[in-house]
Amino acid sequence: MTDLTDPRDNSGGTSYAAAGVDIEAGDRAVEMFAPLAKKATRPEVRGGLGGFAGLFALGDYDKPLLASGSDGVGTKLAVAQAMNKHDTIGRDLVAMVVDDLVVCGAEPLFLQDYIAIGKVVPEHVAEIVSGIAAGCIDAGCALLGGETAEHPGLMEPGEYDVSATAVGVVEEAKLLGPDRVRHGDVVIGMASSGLHSNGYSLARHVLLEKAGLELDGYVSDFGRTLGEELLEPTKIYALDCLALAAECDVHTYSHITGGGLAANLARVIPEGLVAELNRGSWEPAPVFRTIAQLGKVSQDEMEKTFNMGVGMVAVVGEDDAERALAMLTARHIDAWNLGHVRLAAEDGSENEPSARAELVGEYPRT
């Protein structure tokens, strides 16, 4: 006969903690990151942390459209865990979500995070949330709440994964998108801060496995260690994009993530038009050249995997392009004329190209 111990028996019986879930550690983590999370707020937030649901007053809009998005950080997490550095990955998480929202002109209102972790170490969780809170402040949105789930047996003690969902709002009359894009529009590129949060499976395979580089090894082309380069946080463009759209004739944005520049921009270019982008207008950062050279990765594969130095793209009216560039420069954004939108069959042929965005020319040689 099997002896089944009553889980309510505290005299030597089985406990949740014995099974690997430390509720007290989770409570300590909340105590540590609560002051950080409270800084990432907005006047519309109602209530506080600790409730079953976050509350947010939508405010006064004519015809509001809510926009929402969810994302994670991917295998960049493996670098953070290998380096035992957890205070920047939250910025990546926020950037991946809110910069998708702003593509349609939506202002990010609030974000909620989810952290799955093998074993709750309060200090590590607090570091992760500190990055999330800092990212929310940079994006102008509130950190409305979240969840930390301990998964012993499913994840190793030092492993974790993060994801988040954000909600934004845009007036229907100000919605940006492909229907606004016109022949003659100018495509403006905004520089990325590095790899951002895409392509890390290939980057790690080339740099760590194939080339055998060490994360703590100094790389002269980067001016810092490989690990520091790989953990450079994803740039958050949300407030800059919102400010630009408020002052200039912006037709749409494109957040350059997985799939690369051409594929992401093609998502916001309507049928019958092509965004032609000039490779000669910018020079990709050294990290991209290093990956291509050490891994013998083709240009086509690089451009399908990485942002190649362009993190966000704005498509603006031709007459407003110079003003848009000046405004971005004033906001300390490295921006330039990346290309233009043209008719798909400018040569008079009837064969429209399958791609709605294409890269032409060659990158500058150094």
UniProtKB/TrEMBL annotation:
- Coiled-coil region(s) at which residues? none
Q: What SUPFAM superfamilies does this protein map onto?
A: PurM C-terminal domain-like, PurM N-terminal domain-like
One MF annotation (Gene Ontology) recorded for this entry: ATP binding
Known EC number: 6.3.3.1
Q: Where in the cell is it found?
A: Cytoplasm
Pathway as given in its UniProt record:
Purine metabolism; IMP biosynthesis via de novo pathway; 5-amino-1-(5-phospho-D-ribosyl)imidazole from N(2)-formyl-N(1)-(5-phospho-D-ribosyl)glycinamide: step 2/2
Task: Print the keywords alphabetically.
Answer: ATP-binding, Cytoplasm, Ligase, Nucleotide-binding, Purine biosynthesis
Q: Name one GO cellular component term.
A: cytosol
PANTHER family cross-referenced by the UniProt entry: TRIFUNCTIONAL PURINE BIOSYNTHETIC PROTEIN ADENOSINE-3, TRIFUNCTIONAL PURINE BIOSYNTHETIC PROTEIN ADENOSINE-3-RELATED
Can you tell me which family this protein belongs to? Belongs to the AIR synthase family.
For this entry, the protein name equals: Phosphoribosylformylglycinamidine cyclo-ligase
